[in-house]
From TrEMBL:
It comes from Albula goreensis. It holds the Pfam family Amidase_2. Keywords: Immunity, Signal. This is Peptidoglycan recognition protein family domain-containing protein. SUPFAM superfamilies: N-acetylmuramoyl-L-alanine amidase-like. One of its GO terms (molecular function) is N-acetylmuramoyl-L-alanine amidase activity. Residues 267-399 form the Peptidoglycan recognition protein family domain. Belongs to the N-acetylmuramoyl-L-alanine amidase 2 family. It comes from the Eukaryota. InterPro entries: Amidase/PGRP_sf, Amidase_domain, PGRP, PGRP_domain_met/bac. One of its GO terms (biological process) is peptidoglycan catabolic process. The lineage of its organism: Eukaryota, Metazoa, Chordata, Craniata, Vertebrata. Coiled coil: none annotated.
């Protein structure tokens, strides 16, 4: 029984910690805020403090991040007086990079960039791993903290923020981009396996995190976790200024609904700033929504499917260059483009008319698969991404 529970739990955990709910960007630190750099520093912590074991190590990291309020302690217990040894620059980096918060300037701190172009928040990652390790050692209290610590409390608090907060226009966290996209080495967890593409890749990789999460949660479960976490939060920490009663119930209901739509129903869409788009030329024509059609194309050129964020982003830039400079269009023609890396790339997006299907551009979105598919099909995963996820996302969002 325990073993079965653990297997599921670990799967849940991995799916959760890579969920990366808040995509944003920021970071004017001297160190690159990349997952790769974070892992290097974790290795330093491990080498300078030998014999810790996995649990000891995450607790040391938690102490650097100052993650020990009553809510965290309720599930994970207090930190002992750990005095880890670490080079000051590594310790500064950890302090800066672990604590999750959104600044008054609308910048999100406590997130790092992964090699697949998406963003991961470290606080839920660390708390989730610690809860998982404790649960593996038999702690039911820690097991019950998995969702509250990694997701539900943060989600609930963001729903109940006073409306005056600068963040409130985007209660689920702003979309955003990093100030600079370095090209770190491929991170194994994120990369599709070998040349065979995503269909033969393992399940627990970053591009599947939404699909994995859909297998764990649904609207009613999420709502329950959020309500319970907020009740515990009010009891342990207090709730100055949070919405209450009926107002809180409505906010939670609407918040969860929007969360499910955006982060479970929709695919991850890599925004223009992330792939390095040039600005639109001229004045875009606004689409009149909802549209009745979704036109599906293949790019033909480039003819090869792109299997990594770096490759897909480069393809996007070269198509935009071709459409703007050789064709003389205002922008890349497609509304969206499907990579074979598990992601959709934003072209003209939901609101601006594209140039993809002559005579029909005002009636539908144009979506193109990168690659030449005259003789073969795109991977099953890419097909699902467009057919099941992007289409549902368009309908659910009024497009
Ligand atoms: C949500 O998931 C739970 C647990 O798997 C299940 O019992 C419940 O019926 C689901 N609810 C909906 C609305 O799908």
């Amino acid at each position: 029984m325990r073993i079965t529970t653990m297997g599921t739990m670990v799967t849940h955990l991995i799916a959760l910690v890579v969920l990366g709910i808040f995509t944003c960007a920021c970071g004017h630190a001297t160190f690159p805020w990349t997952m790769e750099h974070f892992i290097k520093v974790v290795e330093q912590v491990e080498t300078s403090n030998p014999g810790q074991g996995a649990l000891g190590l995450v607790r040391v990291l938690r102490s650097f991040g100052g993650l020990e309020d009553a809510f965290v302690q309720h599930f994970l217990g207090p930190l002992k007086d750990e005095s880890p040894i670490l080079a000051p620059e590594a310790s500064d980096f950890l302090q800066a990079v672990i604590g999750h918060r959104v600044t008054g300037k609308g910048e999100e701190e406590g997130v790092v960039l992964t090699a697949d172009g998406t963003t991961v928040a470290l606080t839920p990652l660390l708390l989730g791993i610690e809860a998982g390790l404790l649960a593996a050692g038999g702690s039911d209290q820690a097991l019950s903290g998995l969702y509250p610590l990694t997701l539900a409390k943060a989600l609930g608090l963001s729903f109940l923020q006073p409306h005056s907060s600068p963040l409130h226009t985007e209660i689920l966290g702003p979309d955003g981009c990093w100030d600079s996209m370095t090209s770190p080495r491929i991170f194994a967890l994120s990369a599709p396996a070998g040349g065979a593409g995503l269909d033969s890749a393992p399940r627990l990789i970053s591009p599947w995190r939404r699909g994995n999460f859909r297998e764990l949660a649904n609207t009613s479960l999420l709502q329950g976790w959020v309500v319970e976490s907020l009740a515990l939060y009010r009891k342990l920490i207090g709730d100055p200024g949070l919405a209450e009663g009926a107002e809180s119930e409505t906010a939670i209901k609407e918040g969860v609904k929007e969360f499910v739509r955006r982060y479970m129903e929709c695919p991850t869409i890599i925004p223009r700033c992330q792939w390095g788009a040039k600005p639109y030329r001229g004045t875009p024509t606004q689409l009149t929504l909802p549209l009745s059609f979704l036109y599906v194309h293949h790019t033909y050129e480039p003819g090869q499917p792109c299997l990594s964020f770096q490759q897909c982003a480069a393809n996007m830039r070269s198509m935009q260059r071709f459409h703007q400079e050789d064709r003389g269009w205002d922008d890349i023609g497609y509304s969206f483009v499907a990579g074979s890396d598990g992601y959709i790339y934003e072209g003209r997006g939901w609101h601006w008319q594209g140039a993809h299907t002559l005579g029909h551009n005002s009636r539908g979105y144009g979506v193109s698969f990168i690659g030449d598919y005259t003789a073969t099909l795109p991977s099953q995963r890419s097909l699902e991404l467009v057919r099941d996820r992007l289409a549902a996302c368009a309908v659910g969002g009024g497009g």
